[in-house]
Amino acid sequence: MTDNLLDVTETILDITLFISFIAISLSLILLLIRMLKGPTNPDRAVALDTIGINLMGVAALLAIYLITPNLNDVILLIAILAFLGTVAIAKYLEKGVIIDRDMD
Amino acid sequence: MYKPNDLILRTTTSLIAFILLGFAVYLLFAGHNSPGGGFIGGLVTAAAIVLMYMAYGIETVDKVLPINFETLISIGLITAIVTGLGSFLFDVPFLSHTFDYFEFPIFGEVELATAMLFDIGVYFTVVGVTVTIILNIANDQ
């Protein structure tokens, strides 16, 4: 009975992972189209930021698929780098410089 | 040139920079038994410092963090070399590392390895190199 239940939950997990991988891949393809076609630069910046968030999802799903806790640091790191990159792009689009000498 | 209002960016930065520094220290000390180590810890610290530079400008952060990042490179390299030379005191080859178990009041028994000191040298070097590169590019006219 217990083995049967474990098999069932494992099958459910596999199916869910499969669906999630396909959904995230579709989302990444759509974001890539937006990034390539985007009429203005802010469109591309937002698309890149969202690609970063989707990559966090891919890393999390991969951690479930490979059954390892070692990818958790990677998820946090992708979040940090995506935030930093978006702030840098936003500052460049807004002011033309990323690190300004004096703020007045 | 109009004056932008950076209130949200600055408030977020002062919160996130501390989280980043804590994450960097975690990565530095977790490097022995799990992913992490001096290199990635130094990069995350540099990311926190660069985030502060982006939000507050060079002059303010230079006042808050009076660190010469070029000196930090030398400090890191000297730390790494001294940990290697220290093995000569015990009559073993260069860069031999050892470890031992110590009792601490709160943490209990902790394994301390001399490889940690080498990692701290790597950490300082990476922080110094990364921030020096980015600041030199930013100061370019």
UniProtKB/TrEMBL annotation, chain A:
Keywords: Antiport, Cell membrane, Ion transport, Membrane, Transmembrane, Transmembrane helix, Transport. NCBIfam families: PRK12600.1 (NF009248). Belongs to the CPA3 antiporters (TC 2.A.63) subunit F family. The chain crosses the membrane at residues 12-33, 45-68, 74-93. GO terms for cellular component: plasma membrane. It is a multi-pass membrane protein. It comes from Ornithinibacillus halophilus. One of its GO terms (molecular function) is sodium:proton antiporter activity. InterPro entries: MrpF/PhaF-like. This is Multisubunit sodium/proton antiporter, MrpF subunit. It is found in: Cell membrane.
From TrEMBL, chain B:
GO terms for cellular component: plasma membrane. It comes from Ornithinibacillus halophilus. PANTHER family: NA(+)/H(+) ANTIPORTER SUBUNIT B, NA(+)_H(+) ANTIPORTER SUBUNIT B. InterPro entries: CPA3_antiporter_subunitB (IPR050622), MnhB (IPR007182). Belongs to the CPA3 antiporters (TC 2.A.63) subunit B family. It is a multi-pass membrane protein. Residues 8-132 form the Na+/H+ antiporter MnhB subunit-related protein domain. The keyword Metal-binding does not apply. The chain crosses the membrane at residues 7-29, 35-55, 67-90, 110-138. This is Multisubunit sodium/proton antiporter, MrpB subunit.
